[in-house]
Amino acid sequence: xxxxxxxxxESDDESAPNKRxxxxxxxxxxxxxxxxxxxxxxxxxxDGYVEGSIVKIxxxxxxxxxxxxxxxxxxxxxxxxxxxxxxxxxxxxxxxGLGGTPALLGRAKNIAEFVKTGEDEAMIKIELKRxxxxxxxVIQRNITKSSxxxxxxxxxxxxxxxxxxxxxxxxxxxxxxxxxxxxxxxVAEFAQLTPPQLLERTxxxxxxxxLLKWHQSLAEWRKVEREMARVYESDxxxxxxxxxRNADLERDVIKMRQRAQILKHVELLQAKxxxxxxxxxxxxxxxxxxxxxxxxxxxxxxxRENEPIEEARRQYKEAxxxxxxxxxEQNDAQQELRQKLQRITNLYSRSDSEKNKIxxxxxxxxxxxxxxxxxxxxxxxxxxxAKEALVEEPSQxxxxxxxxxxxxxxxxxxxxEFEGQQLVNQNNTLGRRKRExxxxxxxxxxxxxxxxxxARRRCExxxxxxxxxxxxxxxxxxxxxxxSGRIHGPIVLQIDLKDQRYADLVETILGGRHSNxxxxxxxxxxxxxxxxxxxxxxxxGLRVTVVWPGIIDRASVKPLMSQEELRSRHNxxxxxxxxxxxxxxxxxxxCSETKINLVPVGLKNAQERDIADxxxxxxxxxxxxxxxxxxxxxxxxxxxxxxKKIWQSTYLTDQVDxxxxxxxxxxxxxxxxxLKEVQMEIESLERERSQSKQKLSELHHARxxxxxxxxxxxxxxxxxxxxxxHLQTMEMELQSYKELPDDNEASIQNLKEKLMESAMQRAKxxxxxxxxxxxxxxxxxxxxxxxLESLQAGAKSDAVEEFAKRQSTAITQAEQGCRQxxxxxxxxxxxxxxxxxxxxxxxxxxxEDLKEEFQEIFNKWRTEDGLDQTxxxxxxxxxxxKAKAETLRASDPKAMELYERKLAQIQALTTKMDxxxxxxxxxxxxxxxxxxxxxxxxxxxxxxxxxxxGEALQxxxxxxxxxxxxxxxxxxxxxxxxxxFRDNEKLQLLTGxxxxxxxxxxxxxxxxxxLQNLAKSPFRVVDEINQGMDPRNERMIxxxxxxxxxxxxxxxxxxxxxxxxxxxxxNERMRVLCIYNGEWQPKRLKPLTEYIKNAxxxxxxxxxxx
Length: 1106
What we know:
Elements: E1 4-5, H1 25-28, E2 54-62, E3 65-70, E4 76-80, H2 87-97, E5 121-128, E6 137-144, E7 149-154, E8 157-158, H3 161-170, E9 181-182, H4 187-191, H5 195-205, H6 209-305, H7 307-389, H8 399-465, H9 467-478, E10 487-488, E11 496-497, H10 503-509, E12 520-523, H11 526-539, E13 545-547, H12 563-570, E14 574-575, H13 576-579, E15 580-581, H14 584-594, E16 600-602, H15 608-613, E17 619-622, E18 625-632, E19 638-645, H16 658-738, H17 744-841, H18 848-863, H19 871-887, H20 895-955, E20 959-966, E21 974-980, E22 988-989, H21 997-1010, E23 1019-1023, H22 1031-1045, E24 1052-1057, E25 1071-1074, H23 1088-1105
Parallel strand pairs: 1-20, 4-24, 4-25, 9-23, 12-13, 16-17, 23-24
Antiparallel strand pairs: 2-3, 2-5, 5-6, 6-7, 7-8, 10-12, 11-15, 14-16, 17-18, 18-19, 20-21, 21-22
Helix pairs in contact: 6-17, 6-18, 6-19, 6-20, 7-16, 7-17, 8-9, 8-16, 20-21, 21-22
């Protein structure tokens, strides 16, 4: 069969990182060996053992063995014995004793699990053959269970594991290669090997070290080649991009150089500018100085012409000041007389006001006398009318009876109010009782809600791991009426622990968070089971567990022993079923399915060996571990205990106390009934209070009627008394009016005398006013004269002042012109000085290539007292040159720097690409050369295997071939095994799923046999490969194994099997190792020939009898 090629299309990823690839020394190593595939027999020593084969194996406290020692033969060793006697234990001992790890065996994760139960230390000792008379190699591995660690010894001395592995590898022992070492639990894994893995193991098993090394180097080189090619292409793209970018930058660089020349000219002009500015400033200063001298001469001439006008201005000003002073004196006198007149006027007005007041008092006295006479007449009239209105005194005889009636009513009211207060007190007491019950009831409801929240939290936790289960549970809650009986579940939501400390232990025993039992729905009726599964599983497609346990025998779910016996004999606390509470059917179901009524647990430490040896428990748990006991009856017998760590509880940490929940419901019911009773009592009291209030209202109305009658009698009597008192008061007032003295006439006469005195005083004030008025009039006339004189003098002074101002305008203008000329001259002088200072510094900052040219300009300026350009002309030239430079500005101001840096990078990248290209060509040549060596030899090796494999399958009526699957990537090259077990089939790829277990076993063993002559490993191990084969294939395969493994020079072969067919082929070069490992063993065994002779005799007797 020609090798199959596969084409792999790879994507060109331009975004991959640009990495520089360097070949490692191992990758650059030149593989020059060309040794051919060697199928010559292995050299054997005189005793038939090849170097590295196993001479002797010794075990102590290892798995099922207390002690075991045996010596295998140099070629085929068939190890037989019933299941559980320890055949696979020997395979484990070989793997672990020669440096292998537990993961190679697929049986346990920790090395400590291979120590026999009840022991703390195990020992494996293996003696390996050394050819040529050299001392054999003895490797010993001691395993300590408590520390889960190993120690090593080599030829009796301590040695590190690294040294052990070096010795083992040097002997070409390959316990990690499934083509050489195939444990029982790895048989199925062989068919799962991918083609690349099978190719690697085959090359290794065939001892073709060069092939394997070439293959590994080619795979590594191919990866390096692809990465280097990718980097080279990325560099080429980058180089092209950089060159394009630099071409753009070059145009900017040309502009920048032209601009630099223009800017140098600008610098020269800027250095020249202070010289030109000083020349212009000096000329401006000299002109300003001439103008200042002219302004000073004009000012002096104007001042001389203005001197006579100033003298006249002074004289008129003094006359105006004298007239103004006289006017002010007359104003003061006028003001003083005006104030005096005002004072006299005020005195006269005050006297007139007193006169008016006296007139009002006289009139008041006269009016009061008239009113007194009128009031006496009115009072006499009112007294007469009051006497006529009063009759005889009213009678009060009915008041005594009314008072007695009112007192009777008050007594009845007091009785009723006391009775009402008692009803209020009773109502308040019942109200308090009602509030207490309501408060207690609300507390119980809150407590129940908190418990229900526990179930809700557990449901949310279940949703994380079993969403379908929660969906089915939600549907069930909404559709319970569709079922005849009750459906419980999920179980995890309806069971709880009696003691929370056992949560981790119990949940682990029940299977943990992924347990099918904890998420199961349990139906009480069979028809509900069918209906529920049809609805939830079939219709909705939910993956749930639904069971119908039927009738469970209660005797089968009882604990094995009492708690007292369990604690006293084994130091364990409870059986798991005793810790659970919930519906009885759920507990019974868990007992029947998981036997939790037979699984004890404890929190304290216990003796695991004693518990296991008691033979009563298959499983138990305490503290942090669970223990599973497996009993074997071979040898001295015993128990193998598998220890596992417990898991942290996921569901049972939060739990509902069902007893507490039941008590809460009962208490809530009782409190609700009590609340109803109290409410009925309150309603009855309310009715009594209503009747009492009605009676009180009637009594209040009756009392008010009596009081109204009493008030009417009292009001009539009080009205008569009030009339008598009012009459007496009016008579007393009349008498007092008549007795008042008559003194109003004397008062009136006195007031008239005061009125006369006031008139005389006013006449005096009028005379004084007339005298002062004459003086005031004279003063006004004098003041008016002084005012006219002041106006006249002021007018003359103002006229002279106006004329003087007109004459002084020329002086002011001359002074202002002189000041402006002075300021302008000083300013231009300072400007010229500033420019002179700039001239001294001019050219100092120019670059060296411009300084000589500037010096020539400076010398010309100094000798010729100026230049042929003005400052404006120079500034215009500077602006013009700057405008030219601005038009030449590059788009990138750092273009020159970037251009030079990019140019250097382009050169470096070009050099790197040339170097990478040379390395890539060298690597491709190396790959081509190595592949030309590897492929022919690989094809030859595989063709040899395929030939042997096809012949072996042909002998049993099947077909097969082995080929190489090629690929662009060497790490994807592989070996493909194709087999055909039926005539109507085509050759099909051997996989872990397509063929049956027996077919995979046949294919596996025949492939391993095809490697027999090519393998360079000193021994190989195959464990229970015949399991699953039909008798015909097993017989033919067995014959081929015996013949192939018994040839001189073949590697040592270990074939482990629990059963054999009768009359199998064998020869004298094979050694059969029988394991006698049972509970009842004789103290001394006879030679094996005696047992064989006895078996033949027994067989012959049976035939004769027949």
